Amino acid sequence: MASIFRGPDQTSPKRIPELPQVPTVAESGFPGFESWIAQAVFAPAGTPPDVVRKLNAAFAGALRQPEVIQQMRQQGLEPFGNSPEEFANWINGQAIQWARVIRDAGVKAE
Predict the structure, then answer these.
(1) Spatial CA neighbour of 63 closest among 15, 22, 109, 2
(2) Centroid of chain to Cα 51
(3) What is the phi/psi pair of residue 50, to 5°?
(4) Nearest CA-CA partner of 84 in 57, 46, 63
(5) What strand order describes the sheet that includes 37-41?
(6) 48, 36 in Cβ contact below 8 A?
(7) For the ranges 12-16, 37-41, 99-103, which has the lowest average pLDDT?
(8) 3-state secondary structure 48-97
């Protein structure tokens, strides 16, 4: 449905505010490297689009609350709200990206 928060780490494009002295992977010699740990809320398949939009708006509203932002950042999380369509596009892009990495590396399930 939509991402709720993601955990910034040194694999994201920006340094973690709590660890500003620690460079990102991209800054450490791998330009363009980016990987996110995302957490989200999903609705069951077939949920009416208007219900999905209402749920998304409610979660996005909560993520804009200063006390929620502060509490999440204390846990090392960065609130990030987006639309259901944006999140679906991101998920699809991740599937394509990591499938290519797995294929190119010759990883096999055992």
Answers:
(1) 2
(2) 22
(3) -65, -35
(4) 57
(5) 37-41, 2-7, 78-79
(6) no
(7) 12-16
(8) CHHHHHHHHHHHHHHHCCHHHHHHHHHCCCEECCCCHHHHHHHHHHHHHH
pLDDT tens digits for range 28-75 = 888 888 777 788 889 999 999 999 999 999 998 998 999 998 888 887
**Residues constituting the chain:** 110
Put simply, whether the predicted model's pTM sits higher than 0.90 gets the answer no
Angstrom distance (rounded) from CA 82 to CA 65: 15
The alpha carbon of residue 24 and the mean position of all alpha carbons in its chain are separated, in whole angstroms, by 17
| Paired tokens of 76 | 């090392």
- Delimit the domains of the chain by residue range: 2-105
